[in-house]
Design a protein that fits this description.
Blueprint: H1 2-10, E1 14-25, E2 31-41, E3 50-56, H2 57-69, H3 91-108, H4 112-115, H5 118-125, H6 130-137, H7 145-150, H8 156-162, E4 185-186, E5 193-194, E6 203-204, E7 212-213
Antiparallel strand pairs: 1-2, 2-3, 4-7, 5-6
Helix pairs in contact: 5-6
Amino acid sequence: MDSVLNTLSKTEFISICVRDPRVVKDDLWHKHIDYEICVHTNSMCFRRKTSCVRRRYSEFVWLRHCLDQNALGLELPKLPPWNPFFSLRNTQQLLQRMKGMQEFLEIVLREPLLLSDSRLHLFLQSDLSITRMERCALGKTRYTVAEAIQRSSSGFISRLEDKGCDSDSESCSSSLSCGLSVDTSLQGSHLTFFESSDREPELFPCLSETPLTAP
């Protein structure tokens, strides 16, 4: 019995959850919707074992394009199609998009090759913009990929950028190669989804009810 429990405790898992859609005003005439991405894992591939960041749909599109360049023949999952009439008030549209984005990430995180791409880790665990993620992955920032992830919520990166330190003079790691065979068990997250608005939060069902096990 002890050996079984010991084996279970050592089983590697990555739990991903897309939740909490929120309208963000860009200016007087433009706005977009972003989503909270929460990661919980014991995988050695991840520097932070728990994290939450916010990403918008266009950043998911950017990530898929980046991963496709590194896929080496792997067939990447598709994202929910872009909808010019997408609305936060349409609960069905909202649930379908969040479900599709979460399923996309779950499939991606099963692939050890894709887990070695630093842009995936920056997307999931840093608050950098697309431009800064690209520059960091190419070694064109003073902060490393690890620093961008570890200190993303502390204001460290913002202070470096405010001082004009976002330069080519110091490199960062372009890859977070795990150095191990990743056989992750993607367990469905049972976190609750909330809608951020001026009214009372509306509960959404969890989008992944059944744990997904890597082949």
